[in-house]
Design goal:
CATH architecture: Up-down Bundle
Number of helices: 18
Order of helices and strands: HHHHHHHHHHHHHHHHHH
Number of strands: 0
Shape: globular
Number of domains: 1
Distance between the termini: 41 Å
CATH topology: Na+/H+ antiporter like fold
Strand content: under 5%
Length: 420
């Protein structure tokens, strides 16, 4: 299983005392880049987003099969965390808060029901299975997400991105992710040792919401100066470098404030969304993301113990989570009863958990809130919901004409296709 890893670790040291560690890191990164590109391409040819291929690459490279990638290695964990921050920065850059208001009550209803029903269903079902406390909260919270990248990609391919249904889905998905990130900040605070009381939860929520509001207000004041700085710099890569530095600074500020770093990275994207060079910033950040984001997905995949997926209890929990995840989002599609359009399409488009669900799962596993079996069950839920939505949507709405391409870097990173 771990032959290549053992051979590399036992190889003679060519130079410095830590030379073989660098060699092993280089081989690991090369393996990740090759495996994610090949399996991502295979996933796309099968009509699935590249993220599924990248998860599979992690499973193959991880301890369960080849043993090339150690997901607990500090360097790999750091690279994966950078991948998460870049991904959340991209989501922020893709989030138009005004769009939620423009599509009105329908998107708000879909978004709120799409959080409340899956979360409550997940929490109650986990308690029915004998799982309680912070673990049940993490499982419930992981069900609330909707992948903006995957949903936008599939809707664009079906020429539904600019329809009423498409606008409602994107607005609701944005709302889901904003609420979900706040929930993630609360749950991560509790998992890190916070108290599961009304006061404790309220305090963590207030910090997360307060930081987001303050970051947006101050960021709007700083954004014009940042844009002018970027315009004055003539050196190649200035746009991406300065913008990423801004995101990392806000992520660090969020951590110092007692919130989650991803809240800071997300806030940075929200701030820069309204700036004139947003598209240029998004393209520049996507270049960083092509390296770091697949590393995150691969590390998550490598953390899954394939043997645990053979356990009947894990499969049962995974099946329950999948059922609640699908039913909860379908219910949200039918929540705006006054809407006369295709509500089934809305519900199905809300199903993919994708990259946001993986962030929840990784956080739960890293903090110890999810043990190995439950982590595998949550990953199974993410993979199944991400897998079933694209073909289901294709059956609901046959492709007609030329697809309306979503040229966002987020869709490119998650779905794997270069924008046209």
């Amino acid at each position: 299983m771990e032959l290549l890893s053992t051979l590399l670790q036992e190889a003679p040291v060519p130079g410095s005392p830590g030379g073989h560690h660098l060699t092993f890191l280089l081989v690991t990164l090369a393996s990740i880049l090759i495996a994610t590109r090949l399996l991502g391409e295979l996933a796309q040819r099968l009509g699935q987003p590249a993220v599924l291929g990248e998860l599979l690459a992690g499973l193959l490279l991880g301890p369960s099969v080849l043993g090339v990638l150690n997901p607990t290695d500090p360097v790999m964990e750091a690279l994966a965390e950078l991948g998460v921050l870049i991904l959340l920065f991209e989501i922020g850059l893709h989030t138009n808060l005004k769009r939620i208001l423009q599509v009105g009550p329908a998107a708000a209803m879909v978004g709120i029901v799409g959080v409340v029903v899956p979360f409550a269903g997940g929490l109650l079902s986990m308690r029915a299975l004998g799982i309680s406390g912070i673990t049940a909260l993490v499982c419930g919270a992981a069900l609330t997400a909707t992948s903006i990248g995957i949903s936008a990609r599939v809707l664009s391919d079906l020429n539904q991105l600019e329809t009423d249904e498409g606008r409602i889905v994107l607005g609701a998905a944005v709302l889901d992710d904003v609420i979900g990130l706040i929930m993630l900040s609360i749950v991560s605070g509790l998992a890190a040792g916070g108290t599961l009381t009304f006061i404790g939860v309220s305090r963590t929520a207030a910090i997360a919401v307060g930081f987001l509001v303050v970051a947006l207000l101050l960021g709007r004041l700083l954004a014009p100066h940042l844009v002018r700085l970027i315009a004055r710099l003539r050196i190649a890569g200035a746009t991406g470098g300065v913008s990423l530095a801004f995101a990392l600074t806000l992520a660090a500020a969020a951590d110092f404030a007692g919130s989650a770093m991803i809240i800071g990275a997300f806030a940075a994207g929200l701030v820069l969304f309204a700036t004139p060079p947003r598209r240029e910033i998004e393209r520049a950040i996507t270049r960083f993301g092509h390296f770091f984001v697949p590393v995150f997905f691969t590390v998550v995949g490598a953390s899954v113990n394939l043997r645990s997926l053979l356990d009947r209890e894990v499969l049962l929990i995974g099946a329950v989570l999948v059922t609640v995840a699908i039913v909860g989002k379908l219910v949200s599609g039918f929540a705006p009863w006054w809407f006369k359009g295709n509500r089934m399409l809305i519900g199905v488009a809300m199903i993919p958990r994708g990259e946001v669900g993986l962030i929840f799962a990784r956080m739960g596993f890293a903090t110890g809130a999810l043990e190995e079996g439950l982590f595998s069950a949550v990953i199974l839920m993410v993979m199944v919901t991400t897998f079933v939505a694209p073909p289901w949507l294709a059956r609901l709405v046959p492709v007609q004409g030329t697809p309306q391409r979503d040229t966002s870097g987020l869709s490119e990173l998650v779905s794997g296709r270069d924008p046209e």
